[in-house]
Every structure is written in C-alpha cells, then in structure tokens.
Amino acid sequence: MFAVSELAGSSFVGGEIPLRFILKSRTRAIGHTYCVLRFGITCSIREPSLPELSPVFAKRGSTLTNPKRRICGLFVWCFCFESCLCSAQAPGTLVAENQDVSKYGRKLDPHEKLKAFEMLSLKLRENYERIQTWGGEYRVSVARGLPGGLSKEQIDSADTDKPKQDRGPTITDMIKSETAAGPRHWQFERGVVSFSTNLPQQKYHAVYSTDQPIEGLDVESGAEILIKRPTSPIHWIITSDDGYEFDTQKTVRQLPQFPIVQSVPLNGGRILYRKSPRKASFHQSFLDVRVLFEGTRSRFAQGPWKHSDLVIKSLRANSENQDLPAGERQMDLYISSEVPPVYTEVTSGAKTNSRQVYQYDGKVGFHVVVNSLVASTNAVDAREETKTSYRNIEGIFIPVEIERLSHQVSVQKNNLKTLHQSCDHYSLVRTELNKPLAAAEFGLEQLGLKYGERMLDEIKSTLHVYDDKAGFIPVEKFELDPSRQPLPE
C-alpha cells in the first residue's frame, strides 16, 4: 500500500516545473493573422501529509495560502495569460510549421523507425502485463469554461458578498486578456475516484464522488456561485461484455415506455443502467484508470501498446518504407542522445493541418509522458496537451500525476468564439498492486440496490426490478410485496 507521501518521486514533485501550453487562436480580422496566446502553468508541489491529499500549486514568488483553494490555483495558472504576439502566415500554412525538431535529437531512418516502435510496443506491453490486479484512489480536479453559461436560477443565487477566492490573477483578467468571446462562467469540481481492476479478466469497478461543493464563477461580476453540493457516489462496473452505471443519488420517475412499477415513489427512484462497455465510459465524470497508461484523452482503454502496433502495421504495409508524398500525413521519429533515450514521434500534414507529438521516456519504461495536438480547420482551432508522470512501484511503472489541457476556438464569419476550455488534473493518493480481489468486487451486489429498484437494460431495451431474494425480475412479472418495500429515507 502506498500513500501520496510515498509517491513523491514523480517529476511533478519537489520544486517548480514550468509547463508551457501554446495556444493559437486564429482571427480573420486582417487576412490570415494569427494571434498567439501563451498560457503558462508553474507547479510547485510539496510532499503533503497523508490527510492532506491535494498538492500545492503556487505562482513564482507567491503562495496560495488558502488550502481549500490550492487546487483552484492550478486551474487559473493553467490558462494564465502571459503574452500576446501576432504574426502573419500565408493561407494553407501548417499551424505548427517551422517548429524546431532538432531539439528532439537524431531523426531515425525507416528501418530504425520500425525497430524502435517494435521495442516500444514490447516494453509497454511487458509493464502493463505485470499488473494482475490494481486498486487505489486518484484525486480529481477539473476546471471548465462554460461557453453556454450557467442557468438564470444559478446566476441569481450568486453570493456577491462572499469573499473572493485566492486564485492568483483572476479568471476575469485571463478571459478579458484572451478574447471577449471567452466563456462568461467557469465551473470548478474536486473529487475522488476509488477503483479496483483485474486486468487479465478485463474487469473494472470505479466509484466517483465529489467531496467539496461544485462551484462556479461569474467572470463579469466576480461572484461565487454554488452549483451543486457534494454528490453521492456514482458507480461503474465494466467488463469485456457489459457496462453498468449507478448514481446513488439521482432519481428518475416512471418510464412511460414500460409498465408502471408500484415500488417507485411518486418523486422517482434510483435506476441501475446496463449499457455497452464503450457507452458506459462516456459519462462526464467517468475515469478509467487503465487509459492513463496510454497518455491520451481516450475514455475507453485499449492498451498502452496499441498505438505502437498501429504504427508498426502502417510501416510494414509501406513495403518500401519511403516517406509519404508532400501534403500527406508524415510521421517522423527522433531519438535523443541521453541514456536511456527519449523517443519523439511527430506526425503532421498539410491536408489535415495538424501536428501531433508523442514523447516516450526511457527513464519510465518508454511510456508516453507528453502527448500534444495542434489542429486547425476553416472553422475550428484546437489545442490539446496531456502530460503524465510515472513512478516505479514494485517494479511496475504507474501513472501518478496526469495533467490535461484543452482549448477549442471557433472562427466563423469573422467571429472568434471559445467552444471549449478546460484543465484536468489527476493525482494518485493510494495504490495497491497485485493483491487478491474477491470476485464480488465486480458484482452488482457492491452497489447497494434495494428491493423494488429498477435496472434499465439499454442493450436489450428491457426493464427489470430488483428482488433481493430472486435477483432481477422482468417488469411484466414483478409483483410488489408491500411488507418488503423499504421505508422512504
């Protein structure tokens, strides 16, 4: 069992680590002029005591002294406006053209490239397959710009007298510095994901809950808004064939497409949903920790070696291993001079007007430590970056700090509008590897269902009612036993 203080060996811990997230927002006011917005984050994380699960994020030369707001400080710095530079570029120019690739080291020839990806696939698979079972907790912190804004009722509930939070430079300043089209409201959420997984059997159980109120900020007035109080747990049980989702707080009234269930209160009752494994993963709060090994923003785990295998297949399909014609997507691989080396994969193309960079660090088993994407179309500019820090625990490299930045801007009819802006942070605070897990850990009995509660099977479009003695009964055959119905809480 490892606690957060024992996971302090990651590159995010001990000192300030400057991370630069470069975002470019195109404007059509003067031809094809690009306004380059550089948003910086400086993280200073100390080793916290066991009860204090959140790292401390501080601006250079100052400290966020309010412990309840330390995580919020991260979000502000994720998008802290540093400078604005303008440079003209010709139509059709790659958004990431003229980037200096010499810093990545020596470019590999086609044969070396194939051999390198074969090695990467092998190393990543070996590390992953050393894990039989894994359990633990990640602390989750999420900041979201809300282009659509909050509801009128939420805005009216804003506490204009509440003391302003110590978030460094205010989000108001950041938004105004960026563009008047930026989101007017922001949402901050902090919670914990507890998980258990049996990797060979492809079984996963996660429980997410917020342990602090979900808050909002009205950028214009600076008012703090209580969006939602801390939520009760949401469960997901995912297997190779099924996905189950159960919100222990949410209630739903009678479903009109099915017979009335007499056990459901007038104000509604809880429902267990059965879905396909992939569909169950699309819930906004769902986190599959197995995906963290992949260094991507995917919501559905495939295995950290899958990307390398796809590249290998593509390279082998190109029998001559020649570079692609100009204008097509081109993938290059570079190797640094250090030992062990860092491999940098750079994929770009004029037709897609995009550039993606993966960095595989030999010091952490050649896992992806940086995954950045820059893409631009006639309508949308997108920038994403994921940084992952690993720790060797019992001979297995485990992701301990993950940071995801995302920014999308719409450019239509000479108008600039932010579509999406977010900063997510995950920090491992407890982990347990290769310990026995009971089969019941992935069973529906873990959910605490009560007599008379429903299960909606979205795969078969059927409704069942739970009987703690007989299991799930088709709604058409269920007969209520009033003596067994639990009293309203």
Total individual domains: 1
Number of helices: 6
Mean pLDDT, rounded to whole units?
A: 75
Query: Uncertain runs with pLDDT below 50, 5 residues or more?
Result: 4-97, 166-179
Alpha-carbon distance between the termini? Answer: 36 Å
Question: Helix/strand-derived class?
Answer: mainly beta
The 3D shape can be described as globular
Q: Any idea what the radius of gyration is?
A: 25 Å
Percentage of residues assigned to helices: 10-25%
**Strand percent estimate:** 35-45%
Give a brief rundown of this model:
Helix content is 12%, strand content 40%.
What secondary-structure arrangement, pairings included, does this model have?
Blueprint: E1 2-3, E2 16-27, E3 33-44, H1 70-78, E4 80-88, E5 106-107, H2 110-129, E6 133-146, H3 152-156, H4 171-178, E7 185-198, E8 203-210, E9 214-218, E10 224-228, E11 234-238, E12 243-247, E13 271-275, H5 277-280, H6 306-317, E14 330-335, E15 342-349, E16 354-361, E17 367-376, E18 380-393, E19 396-412, E20 415-433, E21 454-457, E22 462-467, E23 471-474
Parallel strand pairs: 13-21
Antiparallel strand pairs: 1-20, 2-3, 3-4, 5-14, 6-7, 6-20, 7-8, 7-9, 8-11, 9-10, 11-12, 12-13, 14-15, 15-16, 16-17, 17-18, 18-19, 19-20, 21-22, 22-23
